[in-house]
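User: I'm preparing a small set of examples for a lab meeting where we compare how different chains pack in three dimensions. I only have the primary sequence for this one, and I'd like the structure in token form so I can line it up with the others. Please keep the answer compact; I'll paste it straight into my notes.
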Amino acid sequence: MTRNWSSFGGWLAAYAADEQSPAGDLARHAATHPEWPWDEPESVDLFRAHLEDTDAADSLFDALDDTWNQYAADLATRS
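Assistant: Understood. Below is the structure token output for the 79-residue chain.
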């Protein structure tokens, strides 16, 4: 799959938005929440705080941890 992205949110949308998986659930959550921190400095803690603020399901926290690690690995291969 060709991925065009420059941020975690972009990576998440490109990678997982159509997946029927925890990562897909997180991507859909991001897409449907206008307060998702799309343009903020990137930090897993920032995205975790958003999930806390929206009383997100525990499964989304687990998905965030997994997808953040995948994003970091993909980012490292781009450098």
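A couple of notes for your slides: The chain has a mean pLDDT of 86. Helices lie at 8-16, 22-32, 44-53, 58-78.

User: Perfect, thanks.
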